[in-house]
Amino acid sequence: MHTTLAFPVLTALILLPLIGAIVVALLPNSRPETVKVVGLMFAVGTGALTLYVLAKFHTHTGGYQMVSKHTWIKDWGTSWHLGVDGISLFLVVLTGILFPIAILGADPHHDYKPYTAWLLLLEAGVLGSFLSLDLLLFFVFFEIVLVPMYFLIGGWGYDKRIYAALKFFLFTMAGSAFMFVGILATVALFHKATGTWTFDLVEIATSQQIGVKSARILFMSFALAFAVKVPLFPLHTWLPDAHTQAPTAGSVILAGVMLKLGTYGFIRFGLELFPEASHHYRHVLIVMAVIGIIYGAICATMQKDLKRLVAYSSVAHLGFIVLGTFALTSTSVTGAVSQMINHGVSTGALFLMVGMIYERRHTRLIAELGGIQKVAPIFAAAFTIIMLSSVGVPGLNGFVGEFLVLIGSFRTARWYVVVAAAGVILAALYLLWAYQRVFHGEPTGENKNFPELKLSEGLVLLPLIGLIVFGGIYPRPMLDRIGPSVQRILNVVDQQLLKPANPDNEALPAMEAEGEQTETTPAHTTETTEVPK
Amino acid sequence: MLAQAAGDAAGAAGAALGTATEFVGPKVDWFALSPLLVLIGGGLLLMVAAALTGRWFKGAYALVTAALAVAAGTLAIVLWHHVHDKGPINLVKGAAALDGFGIFVILVICSSVLLSALFLDGYLRREDLDGVELYALMLMSASGGVIMAMATDMVVLFLGIEILSIALYVMAASHLKRIDSQESAMKYFVLGGFSSAFLLYGIALVYGATGSTNFHKIASFLQRNVILDNGLLMAGLALMLVGLGFKVAAAPFHSWTPDVYQGAPSPVTGFMASAAKAAAFAALLRAFVILFATQARDWRPPVLVLTVLTLIVGSFLAVVQTNVKRMLAYSSVSHAGFMLVGVHAATPKGTAGTLFYLFTYAIVVLGSFGCIMLIGRTGDADHRLSAYRGLAKDKPYLALVFAIFLLAQAGTPLTSGFIAKLAVIRAAADNHSYTLAVTAMLCAVVSAFLYLRIVVSMFMADAEASDAAREKITVPFLAAVALGLALVFTVLVGVFPGPLLDLARHALPIALGN
Fold first, then answer.
1. Per residue in B43-83, pLDDT tens?
2. A151 closest CB neighbour out of B437, B459, B501
3. Percent of chain A scored above 70 by pLDDT?
């Protein structure tokens, strides 16, 4: 009784929005204001809890913290196993911050109750995905988020919302189908090697008992699911539709946190679970990422619709994250993780502002907008900061991640970096050009009456702009927390590559393994995380 | 007392033939047969009592039927412990056996009867068809299913199938005012007759090859002898597979499903998709996975073909339908494919997976058809997809419940459907049948499209002006209770699947009698 009772904060983090969703669903339908306030309270409460997690997090530790583990299905060896490390920490915090902002900053206009309930359910699902350390539990959350998002897009979206919602659901589910079989195969093979049934990520990842050849196939099954989610180049077609048709809050959450489920999955269930396979297939993924960077940028340049432009810019930005992840140096992976957060903040803010433009003008077509800077200078200023962060201008947060990714990847993926760097320039091109067409010049037609940023809207944007500036000027606290966990994962990758090919495992060609070791091993064992000041 | 009477009668017959030996009937463990006796006896009593008395109070037939189902289920649970402690009980000289597996299937059948009865009540009153016949027939049909679940003799198995089916033919035709209902029964009857013939011929060939219809004797024959020229046995197995494949609605023997499911009264369709399917799978599992385990190398390839075909046909053809009942008919075909994945595995894990799938699917499909029955309004005829539009505005909770059942069928996590898919795919993964596993999951994606189409219609399409004139949907109390039970089960098993998974696991091994 004298020991302090450990508060299961991570469990509470998932349950709180879930309870919120149930409470909201039970409220009377006739009072949209009450619904919004109650929903917001739960979202803010969850946000506060994520900040509590951030405060309690031990900075220089790479392992999982605040772990809680309870048996779920004993016979199958699956459990309610939650934990947070440097990689998931900021994604959790980002989720906690973006949800209240999305609830506050975007108005659904009808059916407040189901809207708020779905959003809170979505938050529970997203947090669960980031916190799960059990393969089955992760899959449960990874899949369940589709349902609320499907209803949000389909119920509160724009004209082609039903098509977009269906496409989103089916694409992701098709990807997950492979992961589903992959997870079960992983567990079966692990059982064959060790004799225990478990879905526990930590146990499977640390023992590394699965044969090389099988691990490679399994990695591909996981990678397919994540590649759809990210999305990587040939699998990205659901994204522009889903983003464009989703209601503002949906786009904010989709771009801000849900796409990160894919990139996070690549690190947690790619690098950590199948280190050798991740290394083996890194070129495939890097090529897809780099194509995505350039292709996304070119498509974004061509868009007539502002929201679609931002959607394509996400394809490009997420390409950087995947590039950094599979360049496999501590700098690049740290950069990738921080880019996940930075992209979430800046793109979330961009979608919010595009939503505000639509609220005012009922159009998102760039051609019908123009000269807004003249009539709404504060609005334009806020947009500028956010847009520049997305471009990756030094001093704002977008720069930190992209820079670390590029500099970190240069050692191991030089020529890819050269191509990817062009993407940075293209980002400046499409965003500045769009900005120019929307904000510069003389206001025409209805644009003359474009209302200025309201105080309430400003207050919603303020935390995001604050994070953009703070993250750009002083990224150290974030990188300090991400670094050790990245190092832990990369150490495992090193070990696996240095390990002589296990004769039991279907031979890894020795020549190839050696050649690759000499190429990459020195790169990230000697390196430390460098922080641009 | 009954046995005594039968013995006397036989004795009398013997005496008439002039033989001195007295006929000794097999020893019968009445207690082990009690779930079956409750269903049969209850059905008969209900029929007679209702015929002799006047009109009962509202819902009485349904409540009596539900009570009988609960009683049979409770007896089954009592027997479960008995069987668990002392091992399987052989009944009637090896013609049937009561084991954990049989009890599990009995539980599935009793749950189906319970829910169907609760749905039927409101349905019959709405359609102005109220009467006791359908309840009595349902109890009869269920007893046939129970016989199938316990049969360890080919002849008894066949008897079970016929009792189950003949009652079902009549039930399908029971909507007297709809020609569709008669048509569906006719189709079911003709095709069902064919399939019974196939099964019977298969049984005959197996008898020819092994010299017995008793499972235990066949098994020991196959263990002791290696059949060098096994053409006869193979032909028998193939024909049995056709017969049973018809009952579980496996492609290419599924073609009756859409018409029959569409035409039959919705609660009857639900019963068909749950209890009848469960009984047929029970027979399939006991006959193929256990009895012909020694021939697994021979029957697994054709079952694989059936499985893949069933999955693909079920999911792809479901997508192009425009009638919700037809959609769910095809989806039930694709679910049969998933259950066949567990059969194909031919391992204890696969069998336990199929059992678990059977139970969860039975509840979900009954709930779905219950919703369909309510949404169908008087006449139960308009099940076009467009008739479902705007339901979320009109009846938000009904729409939500239906959506949860549909998502459960799609295999969304936190519903029983997800764990069920997990259980069978896990068995396939353990066997390294990865291609089959991936095929099944991709077919699940295709079927998800179909479920989402219904959800879209309910939630995202607005009702049109012409819809305003339609009859209001009413949810009778008993139907609401049934929906609530099914919903709680679906979500609870989705979140805490442990107990039911244990139950399915402990239902093994399957006995073969003696």
1. 999 999 988 887 788 888 999 999 999 999 999 999 998 88
2. B459
3. 92
Query: What would the two tokens of residue A336 be?
Result: 């990738």
Classified as helix, coil or strand, B179 is helix
Q: Which of B457, B105, B82 lies closest to B281, judged by CA?
A: B105
Check A150 against B437: CB less than 8 A apart: no
One-letter amino acid at B460 equals M
Closest partner residue to B445 among A147, A151, A177, by Cβ? A177
**Does the beta carbon of A185 lie under 8 angstroms from any beta carbon of chain B?**
yes
Phi/psi of residue B332, nearest 5 degrees:
-65, -30
For residue B387, is pLDDT > 60?
yes
Distance between B75 CA and the closest CA of chain A, angstroms: 27
C-alpha dist (Å) from residue A458 to A382, A453, B161: 9, 6, 71
Q: Is the pLDDT of residue B514 over 80?
A: no
Q: Across all residues in chain B, what is the average pLDDT? A: 88
Q: Which helix (H) or strand (E) holds A66?
A: strand A65-73
* Inter-chain touch B501–A143, beta carbons under 8 Å: no
Between CA B241 and CA B278 the distance in angstroms is: 16
Residue B434 forms contact with A (CB below 8 Å): yes
Distances (CA, A) of A180 to A139, A191, B308, B437: 7, 17, 18, 9
Q: What is the mean pLDDT of chain A?
A: 86
Nearest chain A Cα to B500, which residue?
A: A73
| Both structure tokens of B111 | 């749950």
Phi, psi (5° rounding) for residue A520?
Answer: -105, -30
- As for the ipTM of the complex, it is 0.86
Expressed in percent and rounded to 5, the helix, strand and coil fractions of chain B are 75, 0, 20
Give whole-number Cα distances, B43 to B38, B39, B47, B75, B258, in Å.
Answer: 8, 6, 6, 16, 29
Q: What is the pLDDT of residues B185-195, one digit of tens each?
A: 999 999 999 99
A249 close to A112: Cβ distance less than 8 angstroms: no
Q: Are A196 and A77 in contact (CB under 8 A)?
A: yes
Q: Encoding tokens for residue B470?
A: 């339609």
B429–A151: do the CB atoms touch at under 8 Å?
A: no
Residue A104's φ and ψ, nearest 5 degrees, are -75, -35
Q: Are A120 and A147 in contact (CB under 8 A)?
A: no
In order, the DSSP letters of A457-488 are HHHHHHHHHHHHHHHHH--HHHHHHHHHHHHH
**Residue A3 confidence class, pLDDT cut points 50, 70, 90:** very low
